[in-house]
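Minutes, project check-in
Item: structure for the 413-residue chain
Input as provided by the requester:
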Amino acid sequence: MRKILIVGGGAAGLMAARSAAISGGSDAQITILEHMEKCGRKIYITGKGRCNATNDCTRDEFLREVPRNPRFLYAALAALSPQRLMDDLEEMGCPVTVQRGRRVFPASEKASDVTRALTRDLERRGVQVQLHADVQHLLLDGDTCRGVRLASGHEIPADAVIVATGGLSASGTGSTGDGYRLAREAGHTVTPLRPSLSALESDETWMHELQGLSLQHVELSARTGKKTIYREEGEMLFTHFGISGPLVLELSSHLPDDPCESAIFLNLKPALTPEQLDARLLREIQGQERRQLGNLLCALLPSRFAAVFPSIIDLDPRKPAGELTREERHTLAGALQQLPLHVTGYRTIQEAIVTRGGVSVREINPSTMESRLVHGLYFAGEVMDVDAHTGGYNLHIAFSTGFLAGQHAVLGA
């Protein structure tokens, strides 16, 4: 009987166990070693507690949402496509629904239903789960992994070990970086770990004053040097520390390790050409020449933003609109479509949705998820150096790489 140990009972670990049990049948003994009090804790907080399990898109569409190492995922997505995952969840008794942006959720909109469906399926297939099992070391015999040693000193032999411990984000769910330590122990390279899908901090007082203000149908762009590295429309939010919201989270996955190296701009009127915006400003001023600039801008911006906007670009908000010079009007129009947002850094990696960086994918066989350095050692999920945008893509990466790792770990190929 082939013995498979899976370190970590999150999305990748649960799916690895299911895949191994399906492929191995009665000839395999599958055990999940989870150091928390229950499995799937991070699943519970995904999609704001509703579990955005995947995205109903094609493979090519999926890969366009992966800014780093997308080609590494070809085999994983072939093994478990979004459509197959949706079918599998339905088969396990968890109906799904497709919502805005083709995001896929359980029909109940309860993340617990996804975890419950997976754990019940594993019970039915005879998968064993050991909770409070803290794996401290891999048992290495030359270039082969023979099992693990727990913090208690107890050694558990195995024919294959799958490391599916997650990253460093949302550490309260159990993602404490143990997998990186195990990978390094086996000789693997761990690329620098950074927050991704992260809010951004700023020391600009005006941003803090707008705390809680949400902007819709705006555009964020970023340049590093002369290259535009990001440009998208959507929704963002001002906070007490800087900026957040869907656009900002996605932007963060494209920025360099130090976001200060990029110039970030906010376009508040992306639907208008510069000429159209200038004409709009002239129309607003006409007949309201004595109206203060801060009040006039309420026709173009939320009132809180309108009140501070002139000061941001060194204009007097109390100045009568009719006294604006042509140059000042052009400055105003230019700022409405290219307002610099000075950021000072990311929020902490524990607050990020996912971790950027991890076990180098160059040292992992993308067709099997097996280590190229150590036979019998596999990786799955966020512990690897691959991450994606929001929309269900990161959770599906965990599910699909876990599926592929479990399938090949049990077959020994």
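Outcome recorded: Residues 18 and 122 are 6 Å apart (CA to CA).
No further action items on this chain.
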